[in-house]
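Input sequence (529 aa), recorded before submission:
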Amino acid sequence: MRNVKHKRQVKEEETITKQSKAKQIKAEENDKETTNPQFLFLHHFTETLVHLWWKLENMPREIITLQVGQCGNQIGMEFWKQLCLEHGISKDGILEDFATQGGDRKDVFFYQADDQHYIPRALLMDLEPRVINGIQNGEYRNLYNHENVFIADHGGGAGNNWASGYHQGKQYEEDLMDMIDREADGSDSLEGFVLCHSIAGGTGSGMGSYLLETLNDRYSKKLVQTYSVFPNQNETSDVVVQPYNSLLTLKRLTLNADCVVVLDNTSLNRIAVERLHISTPTFAQTNSLVSTVMSASTTTLRYPGYMNNDLVGLLASLIPTPRCHFLMTGYTPLTVERQANVIRKTTVLDVMRRLLQTKNIMVSSCARTKEASQAKYISILNIIQGEVDPTQVHESLQRIRERKLVNFIEWGPASIQVALSRKSPYVQTAHRVSGLMLASHTGIRHLFSKCLSQYDKLRKRQAFLDNYRNHPMFADNDLSEFDESRDIIESLVDEYKACESPDYIKWGMEDPDHLLTGEGNATGTVEQK
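Predicted structure, token format:
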């Protein structure tokens, strides 16, 4: 018995000795490998690649904002006020003492001057001085770079005439592009431009159109997104040539922009009256709604998560076909004052369900009519902010699918995409969860059809055309620009209508005249410029 135990003990000791020798040999081999120059090179090379990948992933893709005309500068000013609040930046561009949490990308929309205060990557442009002078004399006067401000020498404006605004844009091209080039050269990784403007006046529509064409030509590999304010269709406008201006601008938005976020004044006023119970909404109140949409739509760029961290990713998921790049928005819960009385509990399901309700959509063409009810969603992206559990999102999507609350096109993926984003820790809001919907919807064609209808009424009577004949583009009674613009917008309406059909993929292949530019087919995606 003792011999057996002794043999077993000896065997165990031999095994342990062999294992220790094997470990020693392996350690010696590892030491040889780590001192091998080839191994060291590969090791350091891999570390460098990982570091570069991390830097690229975390490098902000800068966006330059162009504020053009009275409307563009007003909504732009509200946008920057909101961004300063959300990032803890003072009215003078200085980071507040309490803004220490980090985790945000300020450099997407701001840059730091030599004295470390933050300056918006913004260019303020107008042909008359009133609005910009108001900004320069206001409480945020020290926020902007004064070299990035352009006011025409004469200060007479464009007289609500698209042709005048366009011609002056061409006239001042060197000054305007010098500002843009300087700002672009100061960016490390410029992703694109955002244009804020109105389509109905003179400067925002005319000079805005010229800038769109120029940016598309000079910065062809950069994205161009616009926040375009459409006029109130329910009120008589002071601008009698509004239908002409709108049509000519729509042509440039169709051909020269990668994405257009439609801000419909008709719907904004309705929401202010019906949802916020404001009997007579002011420009400041409707502009506050616009700034809410603009800041919420950029939140995934400024507070990055796992998805939609840059403009390309955001737009590629929303625009499966390049010409149908007009987006409508919805936002809930809406409040004019941040500390409003809270009378409901917000949940992910409640927010996502309300975003699909017509009364919360900021485009009037989606009103409850028989024709509008046949319209379909091409794509939907919900940006949900607040205290959200991903399982709640999954359950909410399941409930929406079961209740058939969304009518999608048949030729694409019938799914609502959801991006979760953190709220700013520096802004106290009355609600736990809030949401923004960005959607491509075929019903938006009714807004364009209304623009065509109003244009046709004026053109039939040959009304106010002399205002345009006085400018080079329409000299010698050449009105072909109007005719071409009308054809392009009519083709756009036809394409949105065709999107409702199951065989849209084949649309335009047999009849190339349906295509807006006469090239390619009717399908595609946002080009990664």
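Checked by second reader. Confidence is low (pLDDT under 50) at residues 48-57, 516-528.
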